[in-house]
Design goal:
- The chain is of the alpha+beta class and 340 residues long.
- The chain has two domains: 183 residues, Ribosomal Protein S5, domain 2, CATH 3.30.230; 138 residues, Alpha-Beta Plaits.
- The protein has eleven helices and twelve strands.
- Strands 1, 2, 3, 4, 5, 6, 7 and 12 form an eight-stranded mixed β-sheet that branches. A four-stranded antiparallel β-sheet has the order 9-10-8-11.
- α2 runs parallel beside α3 and α3 packs across α4.
């Protein structure tokens, strides 16, 4: 018997960064994102030996441990070990060996929420095995606690909720880790057009988001007016994006993304760089009306809005930079678990 799960990665469309404390605690945050057909996968397979094997198949990494209530957090496969440690502490696991295997359809540091989505998927596999009575908000908050509190990893709150709920969501963030997920009922024809016009481009570079996020946190704590005002504007951008999508004003999407990209640059250093700026300008020169860096910035994936039929010209322009255009579809479902 194998216990499986998968959770979707996401594209952040507006409001990125306003889900990070202390900004969200002090001012409230808002983000609009959409899950896509790239996933984090997790499987737990019982084995006939008293051992715990953790395997990241996409990274060709594996660690083996004798059965223990707590696995060492040492920089290797820590997300999986962090989930195991917390599940063991809160619920207890049967004294039998197992192999936990994971695979993510995009590289770490790509800006699509890979780390948090992987944590959600691993929790899902354990929940399937133990039949844990956890709802969507429970799993998302659990994943957030494991990452931010147990493992002390810097970051926000949107990714865990996007991966768990799935679909297109307008999310609100408040003091005390309060999160409200508002699923948006967007007409299918609007989603089809958005999917057609939105290019997902991997720059072929990954980045360490923690450094950028730590500077963003520092700017808020030190009352850096330029950075805080940029976050206020990004929160407003999320509301603008929500209205444009619900009302089918897709011709405004590129301009809203362009507005957000200008604000995002003000939040912290290294969100953009000369290579990203060159890419962005090339895409706009080929017809894109706006775009953004996914996640914290600094590299990873970028998205560009290409109205009419200019996506083909934009794709040709981007290929000159050596990256890769990734095909995707929007998804409506979030975390799925099953037993094989």
């Amino acid at each position: 018997m194998i216990y499986r799960s998968r959770a979707p990665l996401r594209i952040g469309l507006a409001g990125g960064g306003t889900d990070v404390s202390p900004y969200s605690d002090m001012y409230g945050g808002a983000i609009l994102n959409a899950t896509i057909s790239l996933y984090a996968h997790a499987s737990i397979e019982p084995i006939d030996e008293n051992a715990i094997i953790i395997q990241a198949a996409d990274r060709q990494e594996e660690q083996r441990f004798e059965w223990n209530n707590e696995l060492p957090i040492n920089g290797k496969l820590d997300l999986a070990k962090g989930v195991y440690n917390r599940i063991q502490k809160d619920y207890g696991l049967p004294l039998s060996g197992f192999r936990l295997s994971t695979f993510v359809d995009a590289p770490a540091g790509s800006g699509l929420g890979t780390s948090s989505t992987l944590v959600v998927a691993i929790i899902g596999a354990f929940a399937e095995m133990l039949r844990l009575p956890l709802g969507e908000y429970d799993i998302a908050h659990y994943a957030y606690e494991i990452e931010r509190n147990d493992l002390q990893l810097a970051g926000g709150k949107q990714d865990q909720y996007a991966a768990t709920f799935g679909g297109v969501n307008f999310m609100e963030f408040y003091e005390g880790d309060k999160v409200i997920v508002n699923p948006l009922r967007i007409k299918q024809q609007y989603l089809n057009e958005l999917e057609n016009n939105l290019i997902l481009y991997f720059t072929s570079t990954s980045r360490e988001s923690a450094t950028i996020i730590q500077e963003q946190v520092k700017n808020v704590n030190q009352k850096n007016e330029k950075s805080i005002e940029a976050m206020h504007q990004l929160k407003e951008q999320a509301r603008m994006m929500k209205e444009a999508l619900l009302k089918g004003r897709l011709h405004e999407i590129g301009e809203i993304l362009d507005f957000g990209f200008a604000q995002k640059r003000q939040m912290a250093n290294n969100i953009s760089n000369s290579s990203i700026e060159e890419l962005y300008n090339a895409a706009k020169g080929a017809g894109a009306t706006g775009g953004k860096i996914s996640g914290a910035g600094g590299g990873g994936f970028m998205t560009f809005y290409c109205p009419d039929n200019c996506r083909y010209n934009v794709a040709r322009a981007l290929k000159e930079f050596g990256g890769e255009i990734k095909n995707y579809q929007f998804t409506q479902s979030g975390l799925n678990t099953w037993t094989a």
